[in-house]
């Protein structure tokens, strides 16, 4: 092999090491107890577009194009977990944080829908946030960029 070819082969791995191998999260999967009920709730409360609805699950499209899959769990489950590393000895942690542009409007909408919703909190440089649970008990955080408030 020519010297130039060897140098070219050698340079490729070094460039690849600088860039993360994972680009972005394309989709998230959520357990639900009743697919039809959950799909309707996410569609109505959040205005999400249903891309595909079938017996095996539903694909909902977020504002940036990311997919949110709803799948019926074989047994009662949520995407939540407990940790000591967040807020207390046994904190029920959310699995996702959603970014929004009108956090106060969504907070009101969720309360009106009957969802379990925590108060809206101002975290200074980290912006406005609140937590809520969907009808199946999946817990989420909602955040608005302070630059858009």
TrEMBL record:
Signal sequence segment: none
SUPFAM superfamilies found in the cross-reference section: Glyoxalase/Bleomycin resistance protein/Dihydroxybiphenyl dioxygenase
InterPro entries to which the protein is assigned, alphabetical: Anthracycline_SecMetBiosynth, Glyas_Bleomycin-R_OHBP_Dase, Glyas_Fos-R_dOase_dom, VOC_core
Domain VOC: 24-145
Pfam families: Glyoxalase
Origin: domain of life: Bacteria
Annotated PANTHER family: GLYOXALASE-RELATED
Protein name, as recorded: VOC family protein
Protein's organism: Cohnella faecalis
